[in-house]
Each structure stands twice: as structure tokens, then as C-alpha cells.
Fold this protein.
Amino acid sequence: MPPPVRLACVVIAHGPAASLDAAIASVRDDEVELVVVHSGGPAPGVPEGVPLVHSEQLLMPGAARNRGVAATEAPFVGFLAADCRALPGWAQGRIREHDNGADAVADVLESPAAPTPRAAWLMQHRRRTARTPDAQRLPLGLSYRRELLLAAGPFDEHIRQGEDSALNSRLLDLGARVAYPTDVRIAHAYPDTARGVLRDARARGARRVAAERAIGGAGRPRVLREALHVIGDAPRLERDPRVLALTAVAAGAYAAGVLGPRPRGSGSSRIPVSSVR
């Protein structure tokens, strides 16, 4: 009789979810309890044997997370966005850290090879890299010990962004121990043109300040400081002057998004955004 599965992976997707198959394939062979939560449109095709939780109505990220937690039973629960791929060791590293006493286990974002998406990587995930000091790593991309997750949860189902940060803050208040291994890695899809990087940065700035307001955060001043921190932190993680230059311009676009009206008309501004990745 095979040993019981220790880790559940909730793959979260919405809309067409063109990269869903790749996300599923990246974890399907890792002996995880896999479930796909999809919302916003017709149900996608998933491989035989992969459970699907589907909603025609578009779900906010927290609602999708909660449905995935309810649909699984493994003692540890992790999440993967459909635009990400788990890299080898993702599941094994999480299980190892949980077995060693961690209540939650963070991941790191792999650096893209090409210069342009690397600027987007620095903008979005400079505090979630293998080279980021533990003291500066963000407790995001977490898998959780189920009983503690249920004690701190559920995820907020009404906000577009930051649902995981809000729950993680409650976990830390409960004294949760978070592990920050460097071998639990995911690859994320980033914009591959300079225009795409700048458009994405501006939209993220607008969404971030809206999310801060929704959870009673500090609003614009705090989010603007993040743009300055990007410029200061980037040279410690990157040497290519092309990447650093584009990152600096993207930080300006992010600040413009913080200060300006909420962007309209772009797909990225209409869909739920999460730190699942």
C-alpha cells in the first residue's frame, strides 16, 4: 500500500488559462494531492484523474484558495498559479521543511534568462529570490500546515490582491514558524517586451495602492517607497546595465500607477491578482 500523500497543491486559474496544462504537469508527478480551481468562463479541460472545482463566476483569489483548501485533505497545503511552473524539488522541499517543524514554507522565484523579463522579475519578486537574505525575504508563496491554516483562515474572498499577506500576518501573530529554503522554486511568466514590462508595472502600482486601502494599509506613501526600494535593491541582484536601466524606468511606471487613476482597458487590470506565485 503506497504511503499517504502529504502535500496538497491547489492550482488556481481563471479565464482561458492557456498555461494551465504546464502548471499541472509541473506538479503532477510529485505525488501531491492535486486539485484545479478555475473560475470565470467555461470549464477548462484537465487531465484525467485531476479534480476540478469550477465556477462560471469569476472568483477573487481568496475565494479560489478557500475552495481549494476545502477540496483537499493532505496535512500540508500549497498553491500554484496557472501562469507558474513548479521546478524540480518544489514538493519535496516543502514536505522536508514541514517535517522539520515549519508551519509554513516560502518559495523563491527563478530569475528569467532574458534581460527584459528579468527587469519584471526584479520589479515583482526581488524579495523572493534565492539570493535575498532571509531577513528580507517575504513570507509569500507559502504552503501551510493544514491545522494552522484553518485556525488562521479563511482567506479574504473580497479583495483583489493581498489576501495571502493578510492571512500570513495572522499566522505570524499565532507564532507560526516560516521556513525560507532556496530549493523550493517556481518559474513565473513575465512580460517579454519593454512596453509590456512598463504597462505591467503601472497596473501593479495602481492595484497595489487599491489593495492597501482595502485592508486599511498605509496607502500611497508606503507603496511609493517600494518603488524607491526597487531601484536601491536591484544592483545587489543584477549586474546587466540594460536590466538595471529598464528596472529603474519600470519603478517610475509603478510610481505613476500609484499616483494616477486606476488603469482601464488592459486585461491585467480586470483580472484577479494574487501572490499565489
Observations:
- The domain at 7-107+142-188 is CATH 3.90.550.10 (Spore Coat Polysaccharide Biosynthesis Protein SpsA; Chain A).
